[in-house]
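Feature request disguised as a bug: please show the residue count (73) next to IS1 family transposase in the output. Example input:
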Amino acid sequence: MASVSISCPSCSATDGVVRNGKSTAGHQRYLCSHCRKTWQLQFTYTASQPGTHQKIIDMAMNGVGCRATARIM
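Example output, currently without the count:
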């Protein structure tokens, strides 16, 4: 069986990451024993994905309105 090395997005530790139950949507949650942060790999809420905030800022700086940004996202 192959093992996948998962690193903490907060402190980048790989040795202290343990499974920590499931979310309400059924996705696996993880816990970092070094910084005590929890996260999941699959997001159900689009705004939680990395890079979404920067995309919204780029659209606003290029003159895209709020409603158009919401349609695109």
